Amino acid sequence: MAAETTALALAALLQAAQICAVAIATNRDAGVKWNAGPRDTQPEFAEVTGRWRRAMQNHFEGLILFTIAVVVVVTGDATSPVTVFCSWLYLLARLLYVPAYVLGWSPWRSVIWAVGFFATMVMIVTGLL
């Protein structure tokens, strides 16, 4: 398996862990009945729960682009030391982004996000060249 694909698989596991963390926080704030129901109403969440939820949503958005980057690089036979480095850099950035968001590390949260985004864009451009 290509290193980029391994990083993608680990990023997916990180997303699954975030989903679990959000479920626990949401159950704590809104209760299991609300979380298991149709969610027709929006309860008030604790500040930290809101951060968990937004960090998870942000990773969904980033994971889409990173998946595209990995597909472009791997299927285009464009893997290189640069794309390997960028894939691990993306994963490291996402690992750091979660506590940065949840703990409110400003402006570091945005800097960490930018590192992951830039690494993804470098992979896509490298795959196109």
TrEMBL record:
InterPro entries the UniProt entry points to: MAPEG-like_dom_sf, Membr-assoc_MAPEG
One Pfam assignment: MAPEG
Localization per record: Membrane
Gene3D superfamilies to which the protein is assigned, alphabetical: Membrane associated eicosanoid/glutathione metabolism-like domain
Keyword DNA-binding: no
GO cellular component: membrane
Organism: Paracoccus halophilus
Chief place where the protein resides: membrane
Leader sequence residues: none
Protein name: Membrane protein
Keywords: Membrane, Transmembrane, Transmembrane helix
Transmembrane regions listed in the UniProt entry: 63-91, 111-128
